[in-house]
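FORM 12-B: Structure-to-Sequence Request
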């Protein structure tokens, strides 16, 4: 059994960024100007009184490098293919067979000799059908000149035959219709030699290296393994990560909360993060702030690959965590130049007769704990899983709200990341205190304010660590108060009901229209909130420039400019509705264009448009208020990118 030399894993998400923002390979200690003030060598604690002053601080990359150095891929195990999902193959997989094993047919049709059909046309040839072969059978007959064998998709091509003619190119249907026997068949079309024959070994040849060691098993690889007849594979096993919370103030979830207590959330969040990273989480529970209990809990974790604790790593009256850890092994207590999650412990706990157990001591604050696990624990788990890519991918984006940095640490701000018109936007999700877990729950990314800046302002470029490429998170936020949200168009009784629903339920929804939306989307949603009532162009213009224009996304165009933007629309159907007497044909054209865009949501929108247009039939008033256009002779606005993009 060999462990792999390097990982091959899908990097799909990484296509959006350099992906190794926190890569330990990129940041040697020297890269940080020698600010490494840890005077001991790795693994030696510096006593418990080393302060958390900035002069002692490790950069994130330094801490990561020191931690990762203690982890290596775990041993290999043989598992059923399904259990291998997400795990790296521990050895090369070579094929024991040809795939397909025999040449077989790609179509239902007739296996023939090419020489017989090379000149086929509407009148000739007619071949004798000597037998039939279905998938799973092997014909014992040979196709000779003038003969054909009826064949099904996937069935081995009989000896002699070199080409398969699909039913559609024969007179089979005609024969069936007229009751003519199928012992003969007319071939109507000449096909190239080898047509519709899949050669043996076309996909994989016996002995070929199919999946190199390190390949991460995804559904496609599970299929490949099964197609080779392999029910199991050797993979690098999941590391077991023991999760331990510490603190007298903690109550286990499900129990009654005592006065002054809080629920232990770190056990759940960290265990979930372990599992999400591919490890097996073993929840030890809560260690109380006394020596015996802590010893007992560490003992309970002793058969794991990593022990992750939370709390007790900063300053405080209950330093016994530090004492115990120091007694039982070789611990470092670090300050890392990051916010949240400045205090961090890492070291090795001695185990009898075994290599020491690595311990990662996360800070107690719930956000700090999860974020520190994200930065350091997840990387350790991935290293143990045999992954090369240890960090999350990053993207470059634009901030829509400020991030503040009060004390020279690198700030990881919780943000919601969205892509609009080709740009990633990062919006802080609310209070950033290290106890505010809900703002982490709302986030799908972490935007970075470097340690040497005191703030990053809205509109500035920012590096974002993508925690989740979570479209659902964004979708769910779009208009949660609208009852029809999430329904398929088939479930909506009538489009006019939908418009009514939007009007009733989304009018007060502050998220229904957002200033960061494309201009036309804002107009469209404004019209939806009108419930299908036409709206003069001047009013729309006022809405846009006074309500939805922001310093980050100023809307400066004139009424004329707006008219041009809306006229050029081919998506929302404004132009059609703008006509004094709407022509149903054109409205439908717009509707069709929306439908052609392909999503269920677009289909809904198309139907809404039809209703809006139908309502317009009765109106004399011009939706886009063409009167406004005539007397507006301002210069055309500067065309901003947004308008061009539409
Ligand atoms: N004088 C100083 N005080 C603090 C400093 C400092 O430098 N000087 N650092 C602060 C920072 S930053 C952090 S982060 C915390 C880390 O403290 P500890 O790791 O020692 O953790 P505790 O003080 O025990 O707890 C902090 C906080 O988190 C709550 N907690 C703990 N465990 C859990 C859990 N399992 N589930 C939910 N919540 C938990 C705990 O009740 C506290 O509120 O120290 C600052 N102080
Ligand atoms: O590092 Mo602490 O996590 O700032 O709250």
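FORM 12-B RESPONSE
SEQUENCE OUT:
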């Amino acid at each position: 059994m060999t462990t792999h030399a390097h990982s091959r894993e899908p990097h799909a998400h990484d296509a959006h960024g350099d992906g190794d923002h926190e890569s330990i390979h990129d940041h040697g200690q020297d890269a940080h100007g020698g600010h490494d003030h840890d005077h001991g060598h790795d693994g030696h604690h510096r006593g418990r009184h080393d302060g958390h002053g900035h002069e002692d601080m490790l950069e994130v990359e330094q801490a990561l490098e020191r931690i990762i150095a203690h982890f290596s891929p775990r041993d290999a195990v043989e598992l059923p293919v399904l259990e291998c999902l997400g795990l790296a193959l521990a050895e090369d997989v070579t094929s024991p067979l040809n795939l397909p094993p025999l040449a077989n047919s790609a179509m239902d049709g007739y296996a023939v000799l090419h020489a017989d059909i090379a000149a086929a046309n509407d009148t000739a040839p007619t071949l004798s059908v000597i037998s039939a072969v279905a998938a799973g059978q092997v014909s014992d007959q040979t196709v000779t000149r003038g003969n054909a064998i009826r064949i099904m998709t996937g069935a081995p091509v009989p000896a002699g035959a070199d080409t398969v003619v699909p039913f559609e190119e024969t007179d089979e249907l005609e024969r069936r219709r007229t009751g003519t026997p199928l012992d003969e068949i007319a071939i109507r079309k000449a096909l190239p030699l080898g047509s519709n024959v899949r050669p043996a070994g076309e996909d994989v040849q016996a002995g070929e290296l199919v999946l190199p060691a390190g390949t991460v098993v995804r559904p496609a690889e599970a299929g490949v393994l099964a197609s080779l007849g392999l029910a199991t594979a050797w993979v690098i096993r999941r590391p077991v990560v023991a999760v331990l919370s510490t603190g007298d103030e903690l109550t286990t979830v499900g129990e009654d909360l005592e006065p002054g207590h809080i629920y232990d959330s770190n056990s759940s969040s960290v265990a979930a993060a372990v599992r999400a990273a591919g490890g097996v989480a073993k929840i030890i529970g809560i260690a109380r702030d006394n020596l015996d209990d802590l010893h007992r809990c560490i003992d309970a974790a002793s058969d794991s690959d990593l022990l992750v604790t939370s709390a007790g790593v900063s300053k405080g009256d209950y330093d016994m965590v530090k004492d115990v850890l120091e007694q039982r092994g070789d611990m470092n207590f670090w300050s890392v130049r990051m916010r949240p999650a400045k205090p961090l412990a890492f070291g090795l706990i001695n185990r009898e007769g075994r290599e020491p157990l690595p311990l990662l001591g996360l800070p107690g604050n719930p956000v700090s704990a999860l974020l520190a696990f994200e930065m350091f624990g997840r990387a350790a788990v991935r290293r143990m899983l045999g992954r090369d890519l240890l960090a999350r991918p990053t993207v470059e984006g634009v901030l829509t709200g400020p991030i503040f940095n009060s004390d020279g640490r690198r700030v990881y701000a919780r943000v919601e990341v969205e892509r609009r018109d080709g740009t990633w936007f990062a919006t802080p999700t609310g209070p950033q205190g290290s106890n505010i877990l809900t703002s982490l729950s709302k986030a799908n990314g972490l935007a970075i304010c470097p340690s040497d800046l005191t703030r990053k302002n809205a509109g500035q470029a920012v590096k974002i660590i993508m925690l989740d490429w979570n479209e659902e998170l964004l979708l769910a936020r779009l208009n949660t108060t609208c009852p029809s949200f999430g329904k398929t168009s088939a479930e909506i009784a009538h489009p006019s009901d939908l418009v009514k629903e939007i009007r009733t339920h989304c009018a007060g929804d502050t998220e229904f229209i957002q200033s960061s939306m494309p201009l036309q989307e804002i107009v469209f949603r404004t019209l939806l909130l009108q419930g299908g009532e036409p709206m003069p162009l001047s009013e729309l213009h006022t809405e846009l420039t006074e309500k939805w224009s922001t310093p980050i996304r100023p809307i400066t165009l004139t009424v004329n400019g707006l008219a041009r933007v809306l006229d050029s629309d081919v998506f929302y159907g404004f132009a059609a509705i703008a006509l004094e007497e709407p022509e149903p044909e054109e409205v439908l054209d717009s509707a069709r264009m929306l439908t052609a865009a392909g999503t269920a949501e677009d289909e809904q929108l198309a139907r809404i448009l039809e209703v809006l247009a139908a309502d317009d039939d009765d109106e004399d008033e011009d939706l886009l208020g063409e009167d406004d256009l005539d007397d507006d002779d301002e210069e055309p606005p500067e065309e901003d990118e947004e308008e061009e993009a539409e």
